[in-house]
């Protein structure tokens, strides 16, 4: 079972979209007994399904992902997609599944909008450990085969129980087949619609039709989540595999005082003889932090995402801006490592509110308290802060992103 090298593969350039995916997530997974289908169990930064989906979306050549679900799950899954895939939402489509896996795959195939795409990858939602390497190997195999599936050689000794006796089974040449399984879109579509329910998977269907098939390198981390222990084991294998890179961003903001009685600083309302002037709630600390996060991921600034000229952001809560920036980090499968905000003003006194500000910021970004620092300083009476004309804030943030 040899895999061709990427350099020799006409179908891999990590730029041009040439495949769509079908994720079968319509099962109820009763073996966990938790009442929650296993594709929705917490995993990584989200759950099993969002991790599986992120695996496909992180591949540059993936154009569309069709998630086949139970009709009852539609509302929940729609919400899940909106939370986890804000920037890639246009690539995701939800399709109602059937009572059997084969029906669900068929519904998925029929829902593919771009029929000119050459390839389709069909995958089980309960295998979250997908990597770009596995996808590359499959695409590569399609340059001279009709279909491909990742496979792992059987390493344990095999025995068969026959009428009370134990027989030895020769494991030479035996493989465990995983998903995703990759095909030419037109070919696999042609095979569905006929009698399909007896096939274990799409690979078997293709085998029966006499297509030329190839086994590519499978991976232990691609194991199917079947029992509760699998969750932790696969999670651990995935963490070991991912190389993280670290990015830093900085932000700076100023807002002037005007007549008022309270002001908003790092999510906390503080009574004061003046308020901060601004189009939104003028939370100068969270504005600087939002800019720092956007800076770390190289995605413009707060004004690009929320133009002050747009009336819909008038009096907006700055939590909206900050949550949006955090969702962009999450969409890149990144994590905020720590953040540090400095508020620069003579008044109000920050110290009495500092813990509340840290807690509010940590809660909003789902961080531990020790990842959030908020400090304050004066300018010894110098400059506009010293003249009590307004408040300045600066922020620095460190973000960990998976290395592509
Ligand atoms: Mg501002």
Structural notes for this entry:
The chain is of the alpha/beta class. The protein has 2 domains: 19-241, Spore Coat Polysaccharide Biosynthesis Protein SpsA, Chain A (Alpha-Beta Complex); 244-402, 2-Layer Sandwich (60s Ribosomal Protein L30, Chain: A), CATH 3.30.1330.50. It contains 12 helices and 19 strands. Strands 1, 4, 5, 6, 7, 10, 11 and 12 form an 8-stranded mixed beta sheet that branches. The chain has a 5-stranded mixed beta sheet with strand order 16-13-19-17-18. The protein is elongated, with a radius of gyration of 26 Å. Mean pLDDT is 91; it is low at 1-5. Magnesium ion binds at residues 253, 255, 278, 284, 287. Residues 253, 255, 278, 284, 287 line the site of magnesium ion.
**Beta-strand content:** 25-35%
Helical amount: 25-40%
How would you sum up the global shape?
A: elongated
Structural class: alpha/beta
CATH class of the largest domain: Alpha Beta
The biggest beta sheet reads:
8 strands, mixed
* Total number of domains: 2
Q: End-to-end distance, in Å? A: 26 Å
Number of strands: 19
What is the CATH fold-level name of the largest domain? Spore Coat Polysaccharide Biosynthesis Protein SpsA, Chain A
Indicate the CATH architecture of the largest domain. Alpha-Beta Complex
Q: What radius of gyration results from the CA coordinates?
A: 26 Å
Contiguous runs where pLDDT drops below 50 for at least 5 residues: 1-5
With helices defined by DSSP (H or I, 4 residues minimum), what is the helix count? 12
Write out the distinct hetero groups bound to the structure. Answer: magnesium ion
CATH homologous superfamily designation of the largest domain: Spore Coat Polysaccharide Biosynthesis Protein SpsA, Chain A
Mean pLDDT: 91
């Amino acid at each position: 079972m040899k895999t061709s090298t990427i350099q020799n593969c006409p179908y891999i350039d990590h730029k041009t979209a040439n495949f769509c995916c079908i994720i079968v997530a319509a099962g109820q997974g009763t073996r966990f007994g938790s009442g929650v289908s296993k594709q929705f169990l917490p995993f990584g930064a989200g759950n099993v399904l969002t991790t599986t989906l992120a695996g496909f979306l992180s591949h540059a050549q993936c154009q569309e992902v069709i998630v086949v679900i139970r009709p009852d799950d539609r509302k929940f899954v729609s919400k899940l997609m909106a939370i986890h895939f804000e920037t890639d939402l246009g690539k995701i489509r939800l399709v109602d599944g059937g009572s059997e896996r084969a029906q669900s795959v068929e519904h998925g195939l029929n829902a593919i909008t771009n029929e000119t795409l050459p390839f389709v990858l069909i995958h089980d939602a309960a295998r979250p450990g997908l990597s770009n390497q596995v996808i590359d190997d499959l695409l590569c195999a399609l340059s001279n085969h009709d279909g491909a599936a990742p496979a792992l050689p059987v390493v344990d000794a095999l025995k068969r129980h026959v009428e009370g006796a134990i027989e030895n089974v020769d494991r030479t040449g035996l493989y465990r087949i995983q998903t995703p399984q990759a095909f030419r879109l037109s070919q696999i579509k042609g095979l569905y619609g006929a009698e399909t329910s007896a096939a274990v998977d799409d690979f078997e269907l293709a085998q029966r039709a006499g297509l030329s098939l190839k086994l590519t390198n499978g991976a232990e981390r691609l194991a199917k989540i079947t029992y509760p222990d699998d969750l932790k084991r696969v999670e651990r294998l995935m963490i070991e595999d991912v190389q993280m890179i670290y990015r830093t961003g900085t932000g700076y903001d100023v807002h002037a005082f005007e007549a008022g009685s309270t002001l908003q600083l790092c999510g906390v309302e503080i009574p004061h003889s003046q308020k901060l002037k601004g189009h939104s709630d003028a939370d100068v600390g969270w504005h600087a932090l939002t800019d720092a996060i956007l800076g770390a991921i190289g995605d413009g600034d707060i004004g690009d995402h929320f133009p002050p000229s747009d009336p819909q952001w008038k009096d907006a809560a700055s939590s909206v801006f900050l949550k949006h920036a955090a969702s962009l980090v999450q969409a890149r499968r990144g994590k905020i490592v720590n953040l540090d905000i400095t508020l620069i003003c003579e008044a109000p006194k920050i110290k009495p509110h500092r813990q509340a500000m840290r807690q509010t910021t940590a809660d909003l970004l789902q961080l531990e308290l020790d990842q959030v620092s908020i400090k304050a300083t004066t300018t010894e009476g110098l400059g506009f802060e010293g003249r009590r004309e307004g408040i300045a804030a600066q922020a620095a943030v460190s973000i960990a992103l998976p290395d592509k």
